[in-house]
Amino acid sequence: MWLRDALAFDLPCMRTMIYGYDTTLGDSESFQTVQDIAISFVSRLASNGRSSPSAKPLVFLAHSLGGVVLKHALLEMANSASRRHIFEGVRAVVFFGVPHKGMSISHLRSMVGGQPNLTLVEDLGPQSTYLRVLDDQFSGLACQSVRVFSVFETKRSPTVQVC
Questions:
Q1: pLDDT value at position 15?
Q2: Distances (CA, A) of 87 to 7, 52, 53, 127, 142
Q3: Which end of the chain is more exposed for a tag (fewer CB within 10 A), N or C?
Q4: Do the Cβ atoms of 38 and 45 come closer than 8 Å?
Q5: Which of 86, 71, 83 has its CA nearest to residue 35?
Q6: What residues have CB less than 8 Å from 114, skipping those under 6 apart?
């Protein structure tokens, strides 16, 4: 994985951290929402000393669902008196292939069926009210002081396949 294995060597003056969460779709009993994952992420940042006003600046790289989680986390930070210092330390965000306006979820819906994680999948659809509201709120927030970069593919790539 580039972030874990190479980024620290490419940018030795930076401290890199990876935040992961359960992305299992099939046979999942998880009922976590994007909001739940985002709040957990913010709590982890705070417990690592990021809520201190003297904490070093942050640059976030986020891919796919991680970008949606990060957008929600940044809103949580900005709107919380006790977490505002974390947000104020964010200098830039780079989104890689993030479904800001939603994505086709029919293949994902068939994988989760009636499982508890269906809500998370539905929140990623192109008609998602959640994504629309999140995008509107984040657009106003990003204009404050955070530089935002979005990178996306321009060629077709394989999607999830059910075996």
A1: 72
A2: 23, 11, 10, 29, 10
A3: C
A4: no
A5: 71
A6: none
Q: What is residue 99's three-state secondary structure? A: coil
Residue of 73, 83, 10 whose CA lies nearest to 48:
83
Return d(Cα 136, Cα 42) in angstroms, integer.
Answer: 20
C-alpha 9: how far from chain center: 24
Name the DSSP letter for residue 156: -
Q: How far is CA 11 from CA 17, 89, 150, in A?
A: 13, 19, 20
Strands of 90-96's sheet, edge to edge? 58-63, 90-96, 147-151
| Model pLDDT for residues 66-123, shown as the tens digit of each residue | 999 999 999 999 999 989 889 988 889 999 999 999 999 988 888 888 888 888 899 9
